[in-house]
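DM between two lab members

TW: hey, do you still have the 3-sulfolactaldehyde dehydrogenase entry open?
JB: yeah, one sec
JB: this one, 481 aa:
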Amino acid sequence: MHTDVLVEKMLIAGDWVDAEEFFHVYNPENNEIIAKVPLASNKQMLLAIDKGHSVLKNHAAWPTHERIRILNNVANYIEENKEKYARTIATEGSKTIKEARGEVKRTIQTIKISAEEARRVNGETINFDQMEGSENRVGYHYRFPIGVIGAITPFNDPLNLVAHKIGPAIAAGNPIVVKPASVTPLSALLLAEAFVKSGLPKGYLSVLTGSGKDIGETLITHPNVKMISFTGGLETGEKIAKQAGLKKVNMELGSNSPVIVLNDANQSEAVAACVSGAFSAVGQNCIGVQRIYVEKESYNQFLTALVEETTKLKVGDKLLESTDMGPLINEREAKRVEAWVNDALYRGAKLHTGGKRTGAFYEPTILTDVPEGAKIAKEEIFGPVVLVFPVNNVEEAVARSNSVNYGLQAGVFTNNIDNAYYTIQNMAVGGIMVNDSSDYRIDAMPFGGIKGSGLGREGVRSAIEAMTEPKVVCFQLQKWL
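TW: and the structure you got?
JB:
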């Protein structure tokens, strides 16, 4: 079936504009062109930053109730058009229509939480008289918006991860310039539409589509951009950190997430959670399950059940309600996953299911006996592949979990409180899910990791704190009453 090609505009400071050049957006399932999108120029990026900087100077007293109203209107607009948003996510990206609807639901929650947190951007009083000689001083501190936020977002959650940048920025009173992933810009433009329709003052939001190579450095290095919020790969994150200079940087850089399954765990629940955690969104998920460490007494039973449940997954048309897994974002990524798996097999790994590629599709794959030195064991696969290892005890499982240069989230399945607390105390990660896989998150919680998994925390409240600064106010009273 032929799909009509959309001709899109991008948003600069509240105005929908074209560019001199355009690029195409493809459906990864069949490589069909679905949209023609502006290729932003460096001049347009400079304009967006300048407009954002100007509006903050000229619109400094932006009432909190106005920000709350706009954010609630955005959430309502998305709710009213949720199927349109879901089909856009599923068409331009890798998610099935069921997964896309889940992302839309979470996006609505993210925006609503942003509205709620806007009323809680508070300071506190300070007891200046705690220091001798300051008995006649009183004061407080309050938080103020830091300035233009530069946001760079990935393809795997093309709506909600953009909302996690824009929602907190607006709640805090900051202008924001967003550069979405070039392969999935349509969802970001739809979110921008919701803000425009909801009455966001001009200047506070720009969404520029195009090449990070052409406009990314300007966004990162411009002195009027006071913070960079980036979600993406470690290599790109390291480059951005070097370019950004003396400004705030908040980064979520991916992972190689481990899950530990101990003998006393509910094995069937662990299997179900690991299958979902490894293969939802085609494994293109920073907290997706990549490594599973199972105590030896349970290993064979767990592995057999894991393979059995995995082979039930239906791979195919993203828009069919019965589909469990679609394609990767493009054939190039599928070929990369294929190469990493083949490298592991060459090094002695054993294939239990999957391992085959058709275009951008790659079958859900389970490997065992993967050497620790294989790339797939050390790096983020970002594809539908999971590795399973036997371990002697929880101490070995934790040590091996910590052996990579990532530390975003982890899961542990156990009914023993001591084992649970051992993992909590000793796993080098930003979040531990007990009796769940690593693939669990709510949009209100602090989210982020350590080591190569990033800097700072996302989650609405955490992002607002990063996008504001405290200002101290102290009164010296002339006459103490």
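TW: got it. The mean pLDDT is 96. The longest strand covers residues 137-145.
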